[in-house]
């Protein structure tokens, strides 16, 4: 039996004395993790879609058939998209990326994790229907970001991935 490399580890909780220069900390990282899709990936998605289409057809659920068809088209059209490099800026005000600032007063907590060797930052937003923000940390030392955030937000090891982030990771976004 082959062991997969789907190891999850949390960022070490050791004290460090690294302070960001000035009142901001910035880095660049991709906006999502890109995984090259194999031919088998396309075959599996296609087979699942065909099975669902057949089931919906026999159940006379034509709306379900339309939803499956649109979903497969959306998945296949977006699957080859490559990630863009995004500039992230942490400041006393909040975190800014993609021309939007998420102020600390609108964030509840944060959590950092390393999944498959890739450090990720989750920021929990205030509000009922707002998903956690997922930020790829990139090549910057995660401890520096963690140290900065600890002065602004509580760390929440219970913060879990949102359903959206889980599905996005499976599909490849």
Number of helical elements:
4
Number of domains: 2
Would you tell me the structural class of the helices and strands?
alpha+beta
Strand tally is 8
Briefly note the CATH topology name of the largest domain: PH-domain like
Q: What's the arrangement of strands in the largest beta sheet?
A: 1-6-7-8
Binned, the helix content reads 25-40%
CATH architecture of the largest domain: Roll
Taking Cα atoms only, what radius of gyration do you get, to the nearest Å? Answer: 19 Å
Order of helices and strands: EEHHEEEEEEHH
Beta content comes to 25-35%
Assign the CATH class of the largest domain. Mainly Beta
Overall mean pLDDT stands at 80
Sheet with most strands: 4 strands, antiparallel
Choose one word for the global shape.
Answer: elongated
**What is the end-to-end distance?**
28 Å
Written description of the protein model:
The structure is a single chain. About 15% of the residues are buried. This protein folds into two domains: about 10-35 and about 80-170, PH-domain like; about 40-80. Strand 6 and strand 7 (about 120-125) form a beta hairpin. It has four helices and eight strands; from the N terminus they run E-E-H-H-E-E-E-E-E-E-H-H. Helix 1 runs antiparallel to helix 2 (about 60-80). By secondary structure, the chain is an alpha+beta fold. The protein is elongated and about 60 Å long. Helices cover about 30% and strands about 25% of the residues. It has a four-stranded antiparallel beta sheet with strand order 1-6-7-8, covered by helices on one side. The chain has a four-stranded antiparallel beta sheet with strand order 2-3-4-5, with no helix packed on it.
